[in-house]
Design goal:
The complex is a heterodimer. Chain A is mainly alpha-helical. Chain A has one domain. In chain A, the strands form 3 sheets. Chain A has a two-stranded antiparallel ribbon with strand order 1-2. In chain A, strand 5 and strand 6 form a beta hairpin. In chain A, helix 1 crosses helix 6, helix 2 runs antiparallel to helix 13 and helix 6 packs across helix 11. In chain A, about 55% of the residues are buried. By secondary structure, chain B is mostly helical. Chain B has a domain of about 210 residues: Formate dehydrogenase/DMSO reductase fold (Up-down Bundle), CATH 1.20.1630. A two-stranded antiparallel ribbon of chain B has the order 1-2. A two-stranded antiparallel sheet of chain B has the order 3-4. The longest helix of chain B has about 30 residues. Chain B is globular. The chains are: A mainly alpha, B mainly alpha. Chains A and B meet through helix 2, helix 3, strand 2, helix 13 and helix 14 of A and helix 2, helix 3, helix 4, helix 5 and strand 2 of B.
Chain lengths: ~475, ~350
Amino acid sequence: MASTSFIDLSRLQFATTAAFHMTFPALTVGLSIFLVICYACYCKTDNPIYLQMFRFWRKIFAVGFALGIVAGIVLTFELGLNWGGYARAVGPVLGPIICLEALTAFFLEAGFIGILLYGEGRVSRKVTMVAACLVALGALLSTTWILAANSWMQTPAGYKEVNGQFQVTSWYHAIFNPAFVWRFPHQLLAVLISASWFIAAIGAYYVLKHRAAEFARKTMSMGLLGASILLPVQLYVGDSTATYVSAVYEPAKVTAAEGNFANGSTGWNVIVIPNQSKQRDDFKLSIPHAGSVFVFHNFSGTTPIAGLKSFPKSLQPPVWPTFYGFKIMIFAAWGMFSVAFIGLVMRLRRRMFSERWFLRLVLWTMPVGVFATIAGWVVSESGRQPWLVYGKLLVANSPSSLSTGELIASLAGFWIIYLVMFGAWVRHVARQVRSGPEDVPPNSTDAAPARSPRPVRALMPLGSE
Amino acid sequence: MVFFWMVVLLLALLVYVIMDGYDLGIGTLTLFERDGRTRRRMLDVVGNVWDGNESWLILLAMGLWGGFPEAYATALPGLYLPLCLMIFALIFRGFAIEMALQRPGFDRVWGRMFGLGSLVAAFTQGVLFGGLLSGITVTNQQFAGRTFDFLGHGYALLTGCATVLLYAWAGAAQLQAKLAGDERRRAGRQVRRLTGPLVLACALSASLLPIATSARLRLDGVDRWLPFAYCLLIAAAAFYTAWLWVGRTPRQVSFFAVAVAQTAGLLALICLYFPQLVPPSVTIYSAAAGRTTLVFLTVMIGIIGPGTVAYGMYAHWVFRSTPPAVSVAETPPVANGRAVFSPSN
C-alpha cells in the first residue's frame, strides 16, 4: 500500500486537472446550445444580428472547446497513469462507458466542429445548422456518459466482484444507477446556467460600453432569460440530489457538507472551523433550526441531524472541502437566483438596460456559475472520500506504484502548462470581447468570399492576409 | 470475442497512426518551413481535422481500458514519463493551433508552439512504442518496474527518432497531395529526401529489436513467418510507391502508400508479438475484461462504429481542398485599432 503523502500527490494532481477541465465544458456545453439557438433564429428570421451573435460566440466557443478536449484527454490517461489499481478494478464497468463517450460524443463533435467553425461558405446553411446541432448533441452525450460513470462510483449498481475486479451483471442498472438519475439533470442545468450567466455578463459589458447596442441587448437578454428559467429548476433538482441521493446512499457526504461532528444539532452551519483530528468544530456559526428544515424539509425544524461522529474516523470525508464546496455552491446559486429575479422585475419595468449598477453586477458575477459548478464537483468527490467506489474500493488501494519524483514532475508540468493555457485563454476571450462583435460585418450573408466554387479557389493565390 | 476486440483496438491504433501521424508530421514540418504563407496553409490543412484524428487516441485508450483493463493499468504507469510528456505536447499543440487559427496569417508564437508540440508528441509516441516493445515488468497484475525502464537501454530513443521521421514523411506526402504549384513541388522533394533516413531508421530499429526486448519474439509456424514476410514485402513496395508517385496524379497515391507501409509494419509486429499485449507477461487473454463487457463493447461498436466512420469521412470530404475560407473572410478592415463595419461583402 502506498504512503499517504504519495496518494495525496496523485489526488492533488487529479483534483487540479479535473477542475481545470471542468471549467471549459461548464461554458462550452451551454455555448454550443446557444450557438444552435442563434443560428436557428438567423435561419428563421434572416436577421443579421443573429448571425453576428453566432459568429462572435463561435470564436469564444472554439478555443474553449479545444481546451476542453485536450484537458479531457489528460483525464482519460490519468486514470491509468496514477491509479493503476483503480483502473484494473473498475475497467470492465467504467471503461466501456467512457469508450462510449469517445464513440458517440467525441467523434460526433470532432466530425462536425470543423464544419461549424470553418465550414461557412463551403457548405449550405442547412448543413451548418445540422453541424451546430450535432456538436451540441455531442456535448450533451458527453455530459451524460461522464455523469453515468462518475455516478456509478457514487452509487455502484449492476455488478459483481470477481478476482478484485468489478464485472457487470446488468448494463441497465450500471448506467442508470441511482445517483445518475438526479445528478445528470443537476449537472446539465449547472453547465447551462454557467454559460447563460457568462453570456449575459458579456452582453452587459457591451451595454455598459454603449457598443453594438442591438447585439448587446439581445445577448444579455437571452442569457438572463435562460438563467431565470433554469435557476428555479436547478434549486429544486439540486435539493433533490442532496436529499434523495446523497442522504440515502452516501450519508457521510451530507453529514460532512453540513459540518457537524456531534449528533443532534438542528442548526444550519454558515461558517465552521472543523478540527477533524479532535472530532469537533473549533468554531461554528449557525442558524438555529434551519438545518433541519433544509435537510429534512421538516418545517418545525426539530429533527436532529446526524454528526460525523456516527462514522468511524477512518471512513469520514474531509470536512473542509466538502463543507465549503457545498456552501460556495449554494450561495452562488442563491445569489444568481436573486440577481436573475431582480433582472426579471427590471425587465418588466423596462429598466434592465439603463440601471448601470445592475449591469455592473451582472458583469462582475460573470464566472460565478463556473465556480458553483466546480464547487459542486468538490463536494461530490471529496464527500465520497476515503472511497473511490463508494463502500467498495478505497482510494488507498488504488494508486499505481510510481516514484515520488515522477508524480512531482508530472504535477509541476500540468500546473505550468495549465497556467500558461489558462492565461492565454483569458487573454483571448478578453481580446475577442474588446475587439467586439462589430468585427463581423452584419450585412454580409454566409461569408461571401468563400462562395466561389472550389476549382477557382484552388488556382487563386492564397493567404491574402 | 477477445480477439474481435483486439482487432478493433488495432484498427483504432492504425487509424490514429495514419491520421494523427500526418498531422503531427505536418506540424513538425512547419518548424522547417521558412515561408510564412506556406506555414499558414499547413496550419489550415491540420486545423479542421486534428481533433477528429486525436479522438482515435481516446478511443484507443478507452477501448483498452474497457476491453483489457489489466493492460491499461500496467502499461500506463510503466510508461509514465514519456506518456506525460506526450500529453503535455498534445494539449499544448491542440491549444496552440486553435489560438494560431483564430488570428490571420501565421502567428509566430503559437505557430512555433504548435510545431514544437507536434515534434515532441511524435518523438514521445515513438518512445512509448519502443518502450512497450522492449517490455514492461509486471508482477501481481501491477506495474513493478522502475521509472526509466521505458528507455529499454536507449532503444526507445531510436524508435522515437524513427517515428518523427515516419510522421514527417506522412505529413509531406499529405501536403504534396493538398497543396498546389511550387509548394506542392517542395513537399514532394521533402517526401523523397525523408525516405532514405526513414528506411535506415526503420531497418535499424527492426534489427535491434531482438536484442532490446525482454519479450519472446516468435516466428515459428507458417502462420507467423509467412504473413510476416508478406508484410515486409508490402512495406518495401509501399515505400517505393510513395517515393515514385511524388508529383504524379492521382495525388493521393503517395499518402496511401505511406498508410499501407504503416499498416504492414504494424501487422509484422503483431506476427512477432501475438498474443502479448503488454510484453512480456500480459497477454490479450490474461488482460481481457469479463464477457458481459466485451459483448457490450462489441454490440456498441457494431451499432455506432459505421456511422462514426461515415461522418468522419464526410468531414474530410468537406475540407478536401485546403484554402482558408472563413479566417481570411472574417478579417475586416481595421481603422484606428477599432474594427469598422463594411457595408457589404
